[in-house]
Amino acid sequence: MLKIVKIILREFYKIPRYESRIDDGIYGKFRVKYRTDGAISQKMCWHNAKSYAKIFGGDVIDAFN
Questions:
Q1: Pseudo-torsion of CA 58, 59, 64, 65, nearest 10°?
Q2: I want to staple 58 with a disulfide (CB 3.0 to 4.6 A). Which of 27, 30, 32, 49 is the partner?
Q3: Exposed / middle / buried, residue 9 (Cβ in 10 Å: 0-12, 13-18, 19+)
């Protein structure tokens, strides 16, 4: 089930897994809004945003908001 969701998200958002932070900043479509101080991260891909949100306690948001 998880693989199906990942495939759907990848196709919907055209989310490749980027290998460098430069690509992440250029092509990223998500940001993380941290719960502790309300700060918003730089743009990043879905995989990295999800990891950052889990580690630092935040919510993944669309980069274009």
A1: -100
A2: 32
A3: middle
Does some domain include residue 38?
A: yes
Q: 34 φ, ψ to 5°? A: -80, 140
What is the pTM assigned to this prediction? 0.63
Domain housing 39: 17-62
pLDDT, tens digit (0-9, with 9 covering 90-100), for 24-52: 667 778 899 999 999 999 888 888 889 99
For residues 13, 17, 22, 23, the Cα torsion angle rounded to the nearest 10 degrees is -50
